[in-house]
Amino acid sequence: MSTTKYVYDFAEGNRDLKDLLGGKGANLAEMTNLGLPVPPGFTITTEACKVYLDEGRVPESLEQEIAAHLADLEEAMGRKLGDANDPLLVSVRSGAKFSMPGMMETVLNVGLNDESVAGLARRAGGNDRFAWDSYRRLIQMFGKTVCDVPGEAFEHAIDDAKAAKKVRNDVDLDADDLRRLVDAYKKIFKDHAKRDFPQDPREQMDLATKAVFDSWNADRAVLYRRQERIPADLGTAVNIVAMVFGNLGEDSGTGVAFTRDPATGNQGVYGDYLQNAQGEDVVAGIRNTVSLDELELIDKKSFDELMDIMAKLEHHYKDLCDIEFTVERGKLWMLQTRVGKRTAAAAFVIANQLIDEGLIDLDEAMYRVTGGQLAQLMFPAFDTSGSPKRIAKGIAASPGAAVGKVVFSAAAAVAAADAGEKVILVRRETNPDDLPGMIAAQGILTSRGGKTSHAAVVARGMGKTCVCGADEISVNISGGKFTVGGLTFAEGDVISIDGSTGEVYEGEVPVQPSEVVQYFEGSLAVDSSPLVTAVHRIMTHADEKRRLKVRTNADNGDDSGRARRFGAEGIGLCRTEHMFLGDRRELVERLILAHEDDERQAALDALLPLQRDDFAEIFRAMSGLPVTIRLIDPPLHEFLPPLEDLAVKVAIAEASGRDPGHDADLLAAVRRMHEQNPMLGLRGVRLGLVIPGLFAMQVRAIAEAAAQVRGEGGDPRPEIMVPLVGAVQELETVRVEARGVLDEVASRTGVDINALIGTMIEVPRAALTAGQIAEAAEFFSFGTNDLTQMGWGFSRDDVEGSFFTRYLDLGIFGVSPFESIDRDGIGRLIRIAVAEGRATRPDLKIGVCGEHGGDPDSVHFFHEAGLDYVSCSPFRVPVARLEAGRAVLDTAGSDSR
Ligand code: ADP
Ligand code: MG
Ligand code: MG
What we know:
By secondary structure, this protein is α/β, with parallel strands linked by helices.
């Protein structure tokens, strides 16, 4: 029987084995094989972890495998684990495939006990202080990690020791102090763990290993994975690494560094160093670190070697790396590296630098940045040059920079917004009742809940700025205030929240438009900053690379113009319903109330010139590019006043003996037209078939506007789109009528505009009978919002605020199907429609006009599914362009989570 190999020496691994060895283990192996100074060690695989978590015990063969690798390690080091005279010590380190900062556990100095502590001191040249310091760290870390001893118990003890001696820093404690501290720690350990601190080194190592395995399922790790969408079943590897010591004195120390600035992408190393310290001391902030430059003054040899290694790593990984290192008495050791996390701006800037440095090509650079990062760069940002006071930091749930007066209830938010005030809705958490307030507010701040909380999900859906889970803030709704760090904020006080960073500021922080948007708008030159240069270069490449065209959803000249500057290659969805609002509502009322054909026709005749002007404006802005105009879609009663308002008006009039007149007619119409499920009622193509002349008027307006703009020398390219078709007969009826109107306008004006006639595919039946529908359609455009609603059988407005959070928690979907296309279900309808539509009509033009057209993941799907274009709101056009380029490259790839 072949047994699984569960343990790999560092020399046996490499960076591609992250699934098996975890990120830390795979990269330690990579560095080992590069010949870098990595302390020897081995990795216990994620497979072993999975067996342990599934079966509650480690695999049978593991014990012996570890013993064999430990023996090799002991031989290489010339010492035995925990030997009384000259002990080998090891660290037991977690390391999952994706880094989960601070989520999991590591134990240092394993192998120390009451005897080997003396041996360690002797080996360090009689350095008792160092040995006892290492021992107390072991008991502390082991106690916390393996036996759940509360960390504060140890922290109090060390604080007491410092206080007794009247010193501030742990380095001021001498060997005797630390020896006493070890006694205190052992007592704390026993009190909580109900056993003595284990003296057997191998038992220490095995218990620590299991504790690391277990830490995979710690609450905070589970929560983090859910937020970062890291699969729950990966498990963690465990790395056993020979200890090197940064706490041997002033000629030793430990540090972290980045090969470039991860905030801006600027070239040059960044890092922190701490003398006479071990492991986590650097990030824990127990003493002030010095900047990496100072290491050059402290220990030039180690510094130079470190610079060399960092350059080597960048060349090897062809990317920004972050590292952990330790200097032991003038000897440099590398303890960790990985491709480092970075901000959106740094991602673009670094990718561009790496092209110049010849390390990567344009494809790779484009692949390394994402549409999500580009979107972040397009939000207006706070100008923090005036150093505003930061009062809290929560989870960056939905990007943007929002400023407003604090309110604590949805009602207050609505009232303030009605009065023209800008407000930030502050809640402990939100629920569906808060929805009107969330809509009215500039931004939302909650003290509880993560990236999938109600507030976060709904805010993202609305594109509203949101910071959630800012747990330093204590919200007192009934008291009408919140407190944080000794400050109190009452209703009406101004705060600023940054949904891209999670930061919360006191007062009004000035907002500046994003430089990337200014560049897209054409008001910033390509070379105005390293970021703009990088964005320009990568976007240019994406445009060359992509097969999908990108259009925009716009229904006026301004939006069309902006979208065009942002790179839109036409309009994929021009909604016409907005053209029936405002003053024109009255004409729609006349249309609805008409009893006779001529009354109806009079109303339509009055609408015609208005519509014509609307279309002409858009054709001018989009001259030379296709403009897809959707005939009217929503139920007509949406244009009438609400039933309650009318009922009240009529009742008041009648009670005071006045004739309610027109209102009574309207009320009767509203009652007559009332629908239980308007989304599934008289709308879309059904309107066109039921209300004589309505669609014909719109088609005429399109044709006449096009003829007019052509006459001005423009190049209008209208495409007429019929919504909500479920059967070819519906479309055919509308098509015949529309062709008639087009021909009539052509012969009258002498201008044939060659408008295409096509349909939306948004009713599941349309997708399933696409082969038939293509007989009558010159193009398809997927309305993925309705297709998702009807495919799932739930309405977006009703479900997003009510049960979606629960569904996300349960993992029924990882992300809302309204945000990102549901590939398995709705995606299948799309694939069927594409295949069957093209089978009927090979040159069928196919696009998508739902907001999914601007969602990065969905763009990749539409590319795969063979669509011709995506269409999205103007601000998402650049995102779609980039993702359409990236979709051409293989969709796997570098993932710096
Ligand atoms: P994390 O993933 O939280 O960074 P690590 O496993 O990297 O945890 O270890 C925590 C700290 O201990 C790091 O600063 C690391 O450099 C240090 N460390 C880990 N193993 C050793 C070792 N063998 N010798 C010295 N320091 C170590
Ligand atoms: Mg680390
Ligand atoms: Mg629709």
